[in-house]
Structure formats: structure tokens, C-alpha cells
Design a protein that fits this description.
single chain, about 270 residues, mainly alpha, about 75% helix
């Protein structure tokens, strides 16, 4: 395994473990306020300090990790679940009206970033984690559709695909039995990258008040609460900011390592 894959896996595992542990234990109750303990710097009792309500920041980060991971995971699942079939369909019907409609639809969605989509959704249904998931998921659909279509098109003219067509297999069967297994590695790597971008998007949406709503902790919400306290309690912004940076860094390193590990050409170079 490559160094990037190992380091990225360790960083990602740390925050995933913290999120899982938070379901059964946190150092303090993340919702418990203690005004006498407010704005404490990191110390032996509160390892990462406390916020302006006296809440333990480590506990908030642990619970916020599961919010960010859950939102990003479901959003990427939506993108893969809808984008991959659309990309395979467009590649199988390349040059047709269906292909044109799918790709122009992707262009239309790309014209609206996830933040704009979230604003449109929350204007109708209100702010919340579910609407953030929908917004990020919608933005992920054309990403996976484009990646899938581009990778699939390069395979449709290969000899083994021509042999499958001569054998009488339908386009649907060829896409499922021959195309998809040969592009799975690429989709896994892209899924890892989109997962990290999903965490960033969730933090951004929560920062502007469109993501998870109080009292549910969120890294983006913690940054928003800290912006007026930076001069007197910089740890309030530093700790959740570092959590976001390290998580995204870990996922990107893992995606880069997976690409190197799963690419047979790079594997031959290493051997």
C-alpha cells in the first residue's frame, strides 16, 4: 500500500472512530451549558477548551463528526445511485437524443452550485440537515454521470465489448456485466473525493445557517459561532477548523492512494 493510502486511512479512521464513539460516550454532555466554564482555553479537564456557552468543544467535535459524515455519506450515495446509471445509459446510447438530454441536464445542474441549490430548497422547505443532503446529493449526480459516461465510452469499442454484442447481449446487460465492473475502481476513487467535498459542503451550508440546525452540533455551525469570538477565544475556531482540514486531507490522501493502488499500470511500475 502507498504512503498516502496509509496516512489518509489513519486520519479518516480517527474521525470515523470518534463519530462512532460519540453515539455511546463523549467526555461531557455536548448539549450541557456551564456559564462559569465559558471560553476556557484547552486544559486538563476540557482538552480542547469550551465555547461561549461553556460546552466542551471536544464533545461537540465528536458529535459534529457524525453529522458531517452522515450528511456527506448519504449525499454521495444519492449521487452514485442516480449518477452512475445515468452515465451508463448515456454511454450505451451515445449520440442519441437520450444521451443529449442527460448531458445537457448535467450541464444545467452544474450551473447551480450546491449552496445555490440549498438556498432554493430551504426557501421552500426550510433549513435542515435533510435539505443539505438533498442539495449536495443533487450536485453529485452530474459528477458521477460525467465520470461514468466518459469511462464507459472508452470501453464500448474494446474487443471484449464487441464480442459481447456479437453474442447478442443487450446494452443493459453489457453495461452491468462488463462496463461497470471495469470502471468500479475509478468510481471508488471519485466517491472518496466527493465524500471529502461533501464534508466541506456540509460545513459551508451549516456555516451560513442552511445545514444542521441547533441543538445538533455541526463543524460549520461551530465556526459560525466562533467568528465573533476569535480575538478572545481563538480555540473556538481553531479546533473545528482543524477537524475539517484533517478530515478532508485524510480523505483526499486516501483517494489519491486508492487511485495509485487500484490502477494496474501504476501497480506494474511499482513492481
Amino acid at each position: 500500500m502507498t504512503r498516502n493510502l496509509i496516512l489518509g486511512g489513519i486520519l479518516s479512521a480517527v474521525f470515523l472512530t470518534a463519530a462512532l464513539i460519540s453515539f455511546v460516550w463523549t467526555p461531557f454532555d455536548h448539549a450541557s451549558m456551564s456559564i462559569p466554564d465559558r471560553l476556557q482555553a484547552p486544559n486538563m479537564i476540557h482538552l480542547l477548551g469550551t465555547d461561549h456557552f461553556g460546552r466542551d468543544i471536544l464533545s461537540l467535535i465528536m458529535v459534529g463528526a457524525r453529522t458531517s459524515i452522515a450528511v456527506a455519506l448519504v449525499a454521495v450515495g444519492i449521487g452514485m445511485g442516480l449518477g452512475i446509471p445515468l452515465g451508463l445509459w448515456a454511454a450505451a446510447r451515445r449520440g442519441s437524443l437520450i444521451d443529449e438530454v442527460i448531458m445537457r441536464g448535467n450541464d444545467l445542474v452544474f450551473a447551480f452550485p450546491s449552496l445555490v441549490i440549498a438556498i432554493l430548497i430551504t426557501a421552500v422547505f426550510g433549513a435542515g440537515a435533510v435539505n443539505a443532503i438533498i442539495a449536495i446529493g443533487i450536485f453529485n449526480i452530474p459528477v458521477f454521470a460525467r465520470i461514468t459516461r466518459g469511462a464507459a465510452l472508452s470501453l464500448w469499442e474494446r474487443e471484449f465489448i464487441l464480442a459481447a454484442r456479437v453474442a447478442g447481449k443487450s446494452s443493459l446487460r453489457i453495461s452491468g456485466e462488463h462496463i461497470l465492473p471495469n470502471i468500479t475502481n475509478l468510481l471508488i476513487v471519485q466517491g472518496t473525493i466527493q465524500f471529502s467535498l461533501g464534508i466541506l459542503a456540509e460545513a459551508g451550508l451549516s456555516y451560513v445557517g442552511l445545514g444542521a440546525q441547533p441543538p445538533t452540533p455541526s463543524w460549520g455551525r461551530m465556526l459560525a459561532d466562533a467568528q465573533t469570538m476569535v480575538s478572545i477565544a481563538p480555540h473556538m475556531a481553531l479546533m473545528p477548523g482543524c477537524a475539517i482540514i484533517l478530515t478532508v486531507l485524510g480523505l483526499n490522501l486516501m483517494g489519491d492512494g486508492l487511485r495509485d493502488f487500484l490502477d494496474p499500470r501504476l501497480r506494474r511500475l511499482r513492481t
